[in-house]
Design brief:
MULE transposase domain-containing protein, Zinc_finger_SWIM, two-stranded antiparallel ribbon
């Protein structure tokens, strides 16, 4: 049985997959989530400077991954040695990053962008934020290298299917 499916933010694809696999959890590819957020920030109505885009991207990534640090071991139990480590976090961690994003938007008069985030990202955070994705077996270990390997194998399979 298929328990989860990863897609980009294509709502038509999403609806079709939910119809075909009603028991599966549809998750957004985190790489595509970041790419899409970058495109959104370039839209004219938001009037963002490059420095603002950089800060907002950093805040979005924190809501996505939630950075955890510690002196020797991080909150995931990994040897840290002073480095920032990405790991699945808790909803409390997400809420903290969400609050920082909201505060930045309020302080910098970017309420329109935050409203967009509320409607289009926060409303479906269970599909892309690590704290929610880690509830599904195996996704707590899924990372960028896995995505590259997966997409590479999909391209190979796709090429074989055309015969």
């Amino acid at each position: 049985m298929i328990s989860s499916i990863v897609i980009d933010k294509d709502f038509v694809e999403w609806r079709v997959l939910k119809t075909l696999f009603p028991a599966a959890k549809v998750l957004l590819c985190q790489f595509h989530a970041i790419s899409y957020w970058k495109k959104v920030m370039q839209r004219a109505p938001y009037k963002l400077k490059v420095s603002e885009r950089d800060e907002l991207l950093n805040l979005m990534i924190k809501t996505l991954y939630r950075y955890a640090t510690s002196s020797i071991y991080d909150s995931c139990g990994n040897a840290n040695f002073g480095k920032q480590t990405i790991c699945s976090s808790t909803e409390t961690g997400y809420d903290s990053s969400y609050g920082a994003l909201k505060q930045y938007c309020e302080d910098n008069k970017k309420q329109a962008l935050f409203s967009y985030y509320e409607k289009n990202w926060n409303s479906c955070r269970d599909m892309w934020a690590n704290f929610a994705r880690s509830k599904f077996h195996g996704w707590e270990y899924y990372n960028e290298q896995d995505r590259v390997k997966l997409e590479s194998s999909e391209n190979t399979v796709g090429a074989q299917d055309t015969n």
